[in-house]
Amino acid sequence: MTAKSEKVTTIGTFDGVHIGHQKIVQQVNNLAEKNGFESTVLTLFPHPRMVLFGDESIKLLNTIDERVEILRSFGIKNVVVKEFTKEFANLSAQDYVKRILVDELNSKIIVIGYDHHFGKNRSANIHDLKQHGKAYGFKVEEISAQDIDHVTVSSTKIRKALEKGSVDIANAYLGYNFFITGVVVKGKEIGRTIDFPTANINIKESYKIIPGDGVYVVQSIIDDDKVHGMMNIGTNPTVNGKSRSLEVHFFDFNKDIYNLKLRISFLKRLRNEKKFEDLDALKKQLEVDMAEARAVISKLDE
Hints:
The structure is a single chain. The protein is α/β, with parallel strands linked by helices. The protein has 2 domains: 7-159, HUPs (Rossmann fold, 3-Layer(aba) Sandwich), CATH 3.40.50; 177-300, Riboflavin kinase-like (Elongation Factor Tu (Ef-tu), domain 3, Beta Barrel). It has helices spanning 19-35, 48-52, 64-73, 86-89, 93-104, 126-136, 145-164, 167-174, 279-300, and strands at 7-11, 38-45, 78-83, 107-113, 139-143, 179-185, 199-202, 214-222, 225-234, 245-250, 261-271. It is elongated and about 75 Å long. It starts with 6 loop residues before the first strand and ends with a helix.
């Protein structure tokens, strides 16, 4: 990002970068292209509730790295991640506008929601921002109430859908397949004993939302190849597991992928996690699951 370049800037959490956000992103890109400016998103991390209230329960649809990557994939030139601290929260509205939006970003157009509040105690609103624009030479483009409501509704629906395991609903609102990013770590290797070896996925970001327990059809890219499989999320009750884990069995695949960082996309939910009588009964169910998963994949590839 060049300091002097003039920018169209929008500000927000953009968690999920879902279809509601994508309308705003498109508006920013269009304005940037029309005016010869650079499209820019200013996003805050960690989430203000984590910092101000110590709220560790909050779950986000993306990690911050995922959010940046998705925003860039939709054509945003500059994604500026501003660390949210108590000091940042105490910036006056005047300092926030002058130091960050004007001096740091060189914003010439700011695209913002009608309900946007900023500055210490969130005391300033869009009308104040328009007044600052007159003083500092930038315009304010207002996002409609309808579009803002759509963003809010979508985020809520996506989180609720994922909690229930309804990845098809989540994917429809996201406009892409929900995914997780994690590193393959060693597990108990029980799957090997029944010819269903699994890769255990460790996600370091505790704030990343994980779909509800169950068995899912998933997809990943490994060494530039598209690989499909099925993932179990849960406690593995058949083998008296205690802690929640994410284990994926990739089809027609036998490479060593320990310590590899993978992005795994969720295509469909197959069933609830359940406890079976023994490993033989589990194996039989996994064979049924695999046949169903392959049928789902072949339908998607049609």
